[in-house]
Amino acid sequence: MSLFSGMLIAKDRSTSFLMRLFTTPLSASDYIVGYIVPLLPIAIVQVIISFIAAFFLGLPFNANVFLSIFVLLPTSLLFIGIGLLVGSIFNDKQVGGICGALLTNMSAWLSGTWFDLNLVGGWFKDIAYTLPFAHAVDASRAALSGDYASISLHFWWVIGYTGVIVAIAIFAFKKKMNGENA
Description:
By secondary structure, the chain is an all-alpha fold. Helices cover 82% and strands 0% of the residues. Helix 1 runs parallel beside helix 4 and helix 1 (2-14) packs antiparallel against helix 5.
């Protein structure tokens, strides 16, 4: 979702489409929300398709799946927000490199999906848990396993990061709207 949302806003910035939109009385937050709203259903469908694939691979279906989908909503917003932030600052070619390769690998390595972060431990684990990716995975795992007490801390950590990233994306977009460098 980051790559798609980043490319979308970067392409719009590089064409006259966004310049024509700037003639409207919309604020920067209106624009960012306008990008987020149609992307969120796409992200939800992406999560649902992933769960359907997991069912075919042996994941048992129960009510906790729905809780896990709900817990993944802020994570979807986080990645959309990261894409909009990067797309507000960089051009479409740069967005491809940052959101395509760098963000994908960084979030995969630092989330604990490929390996247990406790196996590495130390400073690597500390860095991973200062970022939202491991918290997003832990919240979803807790929701899926029915460990309701563990969801809250990780869930709010991701929501906090999401709010900050979206706020920074709005600020960067506003700077670009005003012709300033972000």
